[in-house]
Amino acid sequence: MNIIQEFDTITAISTPLGTGGVGVIRISGEKSFEITEQIFTGKITPRMICHGWIVDNDKKVDEVVVLPFKNPNSYTGEDVIEIQCHGGINVVKNILEIVLKNGARMAERGEFTKRAFLNKKLDLSQAEAVADLIHSKTQNFAIQSAKNLSGVLAQKVSEIKGDIFETLSRIVAGIDFPEDVAEPTYESLINDFESEIEKIDKILSNAQSSNIMRQGIKIAIVGKPNVGKSSLFNTLLSLDRAIVTDIAGTTRDVLTETLDLGIPVTLIDTAGIREDESVDKVEEIGIEYSKQAAKEADLVIFMYDLTSGLNDADKIILDFIQDKKHLIIANKCDLAQERPKDAICISAKAEFGIEELKQKIKEIILEFSPEDTEFITNKRQQDCLEKAKESLMQAYMAAKVNELQDLISIDVKQALLCLDEITGEVITDDILNNIFDNFCIGK
To answer: What angle do CA 217, 109, 103 make, to 5 degrees?
Structure first.
């Protein structure tokens, strides 16, 4: 994007296309008010809800509500107009075409939020939180992402930067004004670096939880043919996704669906694992897929038929998954006289014991990712924190051996630059474009 395009007036549809009550077209830039006045019959007054019609060559297109925002009091920090029209694909597209025809250009992905960042309405960590909110797959991740939007991460990073800057200032003062200011003692520098590294570690300790909440976990259901894997798969999803019959080997492929259990769960139904002469080529491939799914899963649910008991074929599968985190499920408990002590007893068909199973799965999920995570970070932010920590560790080791403080200051400055990348004080165009390319058009 060239410099002229950066300051063009842009527009896009900001609501999903489809039948709905309301559609929103957003306009941002210095010509926003001028363009709207050409196509809107009502009077535009900033900070007021304006009612009228969108017209095209005096032809009424739709009755709308216009929300005008005068810079800098807007999402992007520029003049912004939001046109709220009736929902519907053709209505919003027609109005968008009229706006484009009157002097705006189509916004690129994330360009509204990018302008908000460039105009200092948001820092980069808050801008990334906007994307997380939009793409959040679970209620919990949306709540956690809102923390970053409110500035929780930026505030903590700013606090650490303040500590490091204070340390750097004392070093520089001692170097530049040796007659007036004494160099800080190496003991005090060591204490400073230890404290700053500890604070970075506190944020990084949430990295695994952050990644799991963003990406989710995989749960594979494995077992012999006809033990009820597909029935459990359907019951957990509350829909008839997998074909269920009493014929062994019905499931020939791996089926996946997403389930919200606080974090995104990819639930995997697998082909029954068995080793006998009746297995044909197609089922054999399905069995290999099942084994691969079990290897790649974060949690394996092993299921067996309680009415026939745990036999040698079941034990072979258990041996295969013994090094994986797994749950043992005894199915068809409604048809059995006794309940096992070393397994969760359910009936996938009668939906008996399903809530207990879900609760157990949630307990295991909490081991991967606690519900209330203090800080949410993405891979880019984690890399910046790791680099900052590495620079501080080098400064720490140098202070331990009484290295020249002029040299120590180089690593301290580098740590500050790494933290500046998180909030966007220091950033390259490539990184910036990569971040906003992950947004949708209209945001």
So the answer is: 160
Report pLDDT digits (tens) over 300-343. Answer: 999 999 988 888 888 999 999 999 999 999 998 888 777 887 88
Phi-psi region of 324 (alpha: psi -120 to 50; beta: other; left: phi over 0): beta
pLDDT of residue 240: 64
The whole-model pTM stands at 0.77
Give the span between the Cα atoms of 53 and 55, in whole angstroms: 6
H or E stretch covering 322: none
What does the DSSP 8-state code read for residue 90?
A: H
Distance of alpha carbon 66 from alpha carbon 83, whole angstroms: 5
| Band of residue 370 on the pLDDT scale cut at 50, 70, 90 | low
Angle of helix 429-436 relative to helix 111-118, nearest 10 degrees? 140
CB 130 within 8 A of CB 53: no
Burial class (CB in 10 A: 0-12, 13-18, 19+), 247: exposed
- Total number of residues shown for the chain: 443
**Residue 364 DSSP SS3:** helix
DSSP state of 280: -
Sign of CA dihedral 351, 353, 354, 355: positive
Buried residues in 261-297 as b, exposed as e (16+ CB within 10 A) = bbbbbbbbbbbbbbeeeebeeebeebbebbbebbeeb
Q: Measured between alpha carbons, how far is 60 from 53 in angstroms, rounded to an integer?
A: 6
